[in-house]
């Protein structure tokens, strides 16, 4: 009798653990979907998601401020920085072109 009660208690503990894991899995799935949709703040999006029936597409349409815009194209090289050989102001540009043309500033 004691062993049957112990087994029933263990089964109930396992059921509660399974329920917790399922709930955690569902929560992680929603977080992942929000990340894929480009959400800026998961916690804020989760707070208003229920107001939109749990529909992420509807949330994105009605609350666009929660989501990042489309990624912008980078300017410059692969790192997004300007080329190392380019100059940033007009004086440096003229000096560079004078040097290339063989008109060194020291000749003036």
Overview of the molecule:
- There is one protein chain.
- It contains 4 helices and no strands.
- 58% of the residues lie in helices and 0% in strands.
- The relative contact order is 0.06.
- It is an all-alpha fold and 108 residues long.
Spatial gap, N to C terminus: 108 Å
What is the rounded Rg?
30 Å
Any low-confidence stretches, pLDDT <50, length ≥5?
A: 70-76
Q: In percent terms, what proportion of residues is strand?
A: under 5%
**Series of H and E elements:** HHHH
Number of strands: 0
Helix content estimate: 55-70%
Mean pLDDT metric:
81
Kindly name the structural category.
Answer: mainly alpha
Which word captures the global form? Answer: elongated
Main sheet characteristics? none
Number of distinct helices: 4
Which key phrases capture this entry?
58% helix; 108 residues; elongated; mainly alpha; 4 helices
